[in-house]
Design brief:
By secondary structure, the protein is mostly helical. It has one domain. Helices cover about 60% and strands about 0% of the residues. The chain is built from 3 helices and no strands. It is elongated and about 85 Å long. The chain starts with a helix and ends in a 22-residue tail after the last helix.
Length: about 90
């Protein structure tokens, strides 16, 4: 009887091994939540700079050029091969 309960305490649906798996899943979920929170903070900061009361002209110009694929005549473009480009932030 002791062996039966010991076995299920280790391998059952609510046993020790299931607890370890849940602990790992929780750690992964917390890491993902932290990463997404940091990404959201960065995006909120950029959006705050584009609001009317605190408009950052340089950031506005940068975004307009990126969206419209436009540059001034005095701008110098350096085109990098794809393997050297930084990944875009979502």
């Amino acid at each position: 009887m002791v062996a039966y309960f010991a076995y299920h305490a280790m391998n059952g649906d609510r046993g020790f091994y299931a607890w370890l798996v849940l602990k790992q899943e929780r750690a992964q979920a917390l890491a993902t939540a932290e990463r997404l929170g940091e990404q959201r903070d960065r995006l909120e900061t950029r959006v705050a700079h584009l609001r009317g009361d605190a408009l950052d002209p340089d950031l506005l110009e940068e975004r307009a050029q990126a969206i419209l694929n436009y540059g001034a005549e005095t701008d110098h473009m350096i085109l990098l091969p794809p393997e050297l480009r930084r990944p875009r932030e979502p």
